Amino acid sequence: MKILIVEDDPMVRLINHKFLERVPALQAATIVECESAVAALALPDLDQYALILLDMYLPQLSGTAFLAELLKRQLHPQVIMMTAANDQQTLKEAVNYGVLDFLIKPFSFDRFAQAMAKFTRLQVVDDKNTVSQRDLDSLFQGNTVVASPQEARQKDLPKGLAKLSLQRIVTVIRNRQAEFSNQDIADDTGLSRVSTKKYIDFLATIGFLSSRIVYQGSGRPLTKFSLDENGEAMLQTYIQ
Q1: Is this structure's pTM higher than 0.90?
Q2: Segment 129-171, tens digit of pLDDT
Q3: How far apart (Å, rounded) are the C-alpha atoms in residues 185 and 209?
Q4: Which stretches within the chain are classed as H helix?
Q5: What CATH number belongs to 2-124?
Q6: Which CATH number fits the domain 144-239, given the four candidates 3.30.160.70, 3.40.50.1820, 1.10.10.10, 3.40.50.880?
């Protein structure tokens, strides 16, 4: 899978690149960066990108003008708009071009992960010759429902994750009655914060966990997680 970042700010490009690398389902993707829409349109393999992260305000050619050119070329990648623009007209234009999601800068990794989860659900539907109501509910409503025995199949965990460690962390999470942080799980499991964060990010990506940002007295943001039972069926495809 190929993913394209079209962003003129090099620091923002780097952040988006790092965010993509943190999404377990996308770790095998090839990520390419362009500093302008003009440069992106000149790519010889532009038709091979499954996802484009697109800024609105770009030199020479705007994000919406870029989308118009894609349609003119009959190219239909999934596009997630990432911009500081928050006016109604900009939003309307992006929606009319069929963007998958719209993130207003600055956005958190958790909101980014939600957009990527929507993209990965769409990829599952794209890989099927026929789709069921279950597939459509997962795509449009974000619901995860129990699959039939015929549909259920074991999935491989992303590289770097181990089933036993995942089961250990899931057990700790299930025993918690309230919201928790990554540090809480690290303390309860005896694993490092770096290790537990990989698993928590994965669980959030597949919908097993929901998250919100809490601002502490010091002003520093802290991400709090909680169990989302709608993600149970998806989890079982990895640990059954």
Answers
A1: no
A2: 555 555 455 555 554 444 444 444 557 788 888 888 999 999 9
A3: 13
A4: 10-22, 37-41, 63-72, 88-96, 109-126, 133-141, 163-174, 182-189, 193-205, 232-239
A5: 3.40.50.2300
A6: 1.10.10.10
